[in-house]
From TrEMBL:
Residues 124-266 form the SIS domain. PROSITE patterns: HTH_RPIR, SIS. Keywords: DNA-binding, Transcription, Transcription regulation. This is Sugar isomerase. GO terms for molecular function: carbohydrate derivative binding; DNA binding; DNA-binding transcription factor activity. Residues 1-75 form the HTH rpiR-type domain. GO terms for biological process: carbohydrate derivative metabolic process. Gene3D superfamilies: Glucose-6-phosphate isomerase like protein, domain 1, Winged helix-like DNA-binding domain superfamily/Winged helix DNA-binding domain. The lineage of its organism: Bacteria, Bacillati, Bacillota, Erysipelotrichia, Erysipelotrichales.
Length: 297
């Protein structure tokens, strides 16, 4: 749920509502204002702001203000005008469709990058690095995307299991493992229950979900945010969310690869030379340089 949605769904006293209305009206204008300045401008007591924060689930006003400003900045970000839900329409030419999808997918990747938190990303990388087995829990449509991630990880010697029965898997995992729970809504019932089990069994997990405050994000030890421009089902394709998922999985693989760079390069290239040695191409850009024969030197 977006913070704005939660605000709309919460009942406030007249004084609290005055503070909320001022915050919604000023948006990023409250960034450099102190508690006393906001209270004076909203005609309420400073303690009213604290009560508003507590009602919305925050420890204090500073945490609410930070979350509100982050969400406001994301939602006000200007895009090209390509609708993520309907990026093309009846009568569009093939080249127009191609251009719109290129723009949408590029913007979706940059959107996802803009929401990356360095500390959260590093924590997620270390969780994967120290995991004995990495499990991915997600809905069926994402299995192909996560399957490609599994194959990449296999090539650097990491075991990734794409789970088809989340609850069984959650009960079988140990604290030495790590899970990635992927859900665009962040509220998928089966996955939320799996997260509860993982918390109970002290199994660390990374959540990947939308920009709002979600149950999965609250229960996870590290959280990554997806580009959030699509409706749940009123759309003609998941172009934006899928490319966002694909990008984040690539980022996790690359960051994990870098954490043991020399070892992973040696393993990846060494095995590839043996397994893929018969591959060839007449295109010069694709052609491999022949490795030196060190045995006969």
């Amino acid at each position: 749920m977006l913070l704005l949605d939660k605000i709309q769904a919460t009942s406030f006293s007249p004084g609290e509502q005055s503070a909320v209305d001022f915050m919604l009206e000023q948006k990023e204008g409250i960034r450099d204002m102190t508690v006393k300045e906001i209270a004076a401008a909203a005609y309420c007591a400073p303690s009213t702001l604290i009560r508003v924060a507590h009602k919305l689930g925050f420890e204090g006003w500073s945490a609410l203000k930070e979350s509100f400003l982050e969400e406001t900045e994301y939602l006000s970000h200007q895009h090209s005008g390509v609708d993520a839900n309907f990026p093309f329409f009846k009568g569009d030419t093939d080249i127009t469709i191609s251009e719109n999808l290129a723009v949408l997918e590029c913007e979706s990747i940059m959107d996802t990058f803009s929401m990356l938190d360095a500390a959260q990303l590093h924590k997620a990388t270390m969780m994967l690095r120290h995991a004995k087995i990495i499990y991915i829990l997600t809905a069926y449509p994402n299995h192909e995307l996560t399957g490609m991630f599994r194959e990449q990880m296999l090539r650097i010697g990491r075991t990734v299991v794409v789970v088809h029965q989340p609850l069984y898997a959650a009960w079988l995992m140990t604290p030495e493992d790590c899970a990635i729970i992927l859900s665009y809504s962040g509220e998928t019932g089966l996955l939320v229950e799996a997260a509860r089990i993982l918390n109970e069994r002290k199994v660390p997990f990374i959540s990947i979900s939308n920009v709002g405050e979600t149950t999965l994000a609250r229960r996870s030890q590290a959280t990554l945010k997806l580009c959030t421009r699509e409706k749940l089902y009123s759309k003609i394709g998941s172009f934006s969310s899928e490319i966002s998922v694909f990008y984040l999985l690539h980022v996790l693989y690359a960051c994990l690869f870098e954490s043991e760079y020399d070892r992973n390069v040696e393993r990846k290239l060494g095995i590839s030379r043996r397994v893929e040695a018969r591959r060839h191409s007449t295109t010069s850009l694709l052609q491999e340089e022949e490795p030196e024969d060190t045995e006969n030197r």
